[in-house]
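Changelog-adjacent note: as of this version, every example in the card shows the full chain rather than a window. The one below runs 141 residues end to end.
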Amino acid sequence: MSLAALDALKNLPTEFIEPLHISQRQNIVDSFARLDFLTEGTKQPKLFQLKCLMSLLASRHVVVRAATGAGKTLAMILPLLLSPNKIAITVNEFVQYGIPSIAINHDTPHDKTLWNVFARQSTEATVVNCPCQKFGWLMIV
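Full-length structure tokens:
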């Protein structure tokens, strides 16, 4: 891991880290390591993104309201970085993070090629409703 990632990991608030089980702490470390690798040391998860990660991994619904550019999208994809066997159905593609994804738009329901490819996948799917660009919200169901 880069020095920036190690420093950010080391400086996480104690009140966030202490109540976590060992497996949850490992997920935090793994998310730092994976993101650090994929972004070549340029990004580290923020605290709100890690809180989202913990909720999503516990199968809880998450609603985040934050300004454009604050990191809502990364909050949503952190669990996917830890689960390479899943595919994301989203309004954005996340190929730059190495996550298989399908961008949803007005053509999606009628794209038979796309749905045939999706039907052949032997992966789980995460369904995301993300009107982030317009309203600054992220909702994961």
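Structural remarks: The chain is about 45% helix and 15% strand.
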